């Protein structure tokens, strides 16, 4: 936004209008004891040329995924974004569009959202999708609120211990002022999975829902159908958080009994953007449609018989009676949802499967090469994984996982994530994610970097 300065005459008119003699009088209400009586300790102002040079120097300190190979994961991934996604999503009618307050006058926006909903429902195997939410964790929390409303149970929401810790933290925040509490079922530290018996013991008649993640936080695959069957047998809803890229290869959640499916849609045509914005996916069974948060766009015909689109449901308190609202979500991630729609339309089912397969093959290649290095092994050797896996650093090396990663990163990589950021007891564990962008040559270089770090 441009800065529009006022002249002395402008300021004099403004002050006279509000009845004060000077700008200093506006601060008379602030006690003298807390007022700053010296100039701010700031460097002198720069000219535009000097300022631009300084900012370029500072920006050069950032080493993003375009500067070094990225093996980071944990919920956000460096997948390839086709140029057509950037080109189409940058068109003015999309890039500057905002919430359609006069919805039916915004047919292009509504159609784009409808196409997104259709793609998400097909991808997850569910019947209904909303118009998107802020990110994966907030989608999971909104799904939990849905479950409380659908089941009428207000005792607890269960999250299995292999659900992303940031999802669990968001659930806890959303439930803090509600009767329901969050209960976390611990995972087996030797397998990186949930024991069905442990889950069954935790669920009771007050449990509204169980939140699962497939693949889980460690990149591994749970016996998800068996776990869901346990939850549903006790009357609890099954909420499953998914990596949408994995659905090019793995079974759809709707096919193994999920009631509500959520996920982080960043990997579907959206750049990492230094951590955001992100895209929350939420789909469910049609029976729960009136408990869904956000918006739902529907397709109909106008009075000429032509196809058109309308806002079928608007469930926030701004649009309907407060007591009838299902959520206070005020908007949807329309631009990111559009990018995901373009991405999926470009790839199609076979293209998405190819992305998933290549990611899986290269992840397993990386695991094979890295575990051949003395001092590194798979933390969960019997855990099947999709594109992400956990390595254990042998204590005999005298290094923690974080120390090893620092040495690897210093050689020009984003080499992985130290898991002690979420699991303080796992100081010897780090996680490596491999997408279709990573080449065999980059994986070989990564292996050499780890070997050097552990030498």
Notes on the structure:
With 455 residues, this protein is α/β, with parallel strands linked by helices. It has two domains: 83-344, Aspartate Aminotransferase, domain 2 (3-Layer(aba) Sandwich), CATH 3.40.640.10; 349-454, Aspartate Aminotransferase, domain 1, CATH 3.90.1150. The protein has twelve helices and 13 strands. Strands 1-7-6-5-4-2-3 form a seven-stranded mixed beta sheet, with helices on both faces. β2, α7 and β3 form a beta-alpha-beta unit. α3 runs antiparallel to α10, α6 crosses α7 and α10 packs across α12 (440-454). The longest helix has 38 residues, at 334-371. The protein is globular, with a radius of gyration of 26 Å. The mean pLDDT is 93.
Query: What percent strand?
Result: 5-15%
The gross shape turns out to be globular
Structural class: alpha/beta
- CATH class placement of the largest domain: Alpha Beta
Number of strands: 13
Mean pLDDT: 93
Which series of helices and strands comes N to C?
A: HHHHHEHEHEHEHEEEEEHEEHEEH
Give the spatial strand order of the biggest sheet: 1-7-6-5-4-2-3
According to CATH, the homologous superfamily of the largest domain is Type I PLP-dependent aspartate aminotransferase-like (Major domain)
Q: Which second-level CATH architecture of the largest domain applies? A: 3-Layer(aba) Sandwich
State the separation between the terminal residues, measured CA to CA: 53 Å
Major β-sheet profile? 7 strands, mixed
**Helix share bin:** 25-40%
Number of domains: 2
Compute the CA-based radius of gyration.
26 Å
CATH-defined fold name of the largest domain: Aspartate Aminotransferase, domain 2
Uncertain spans: none
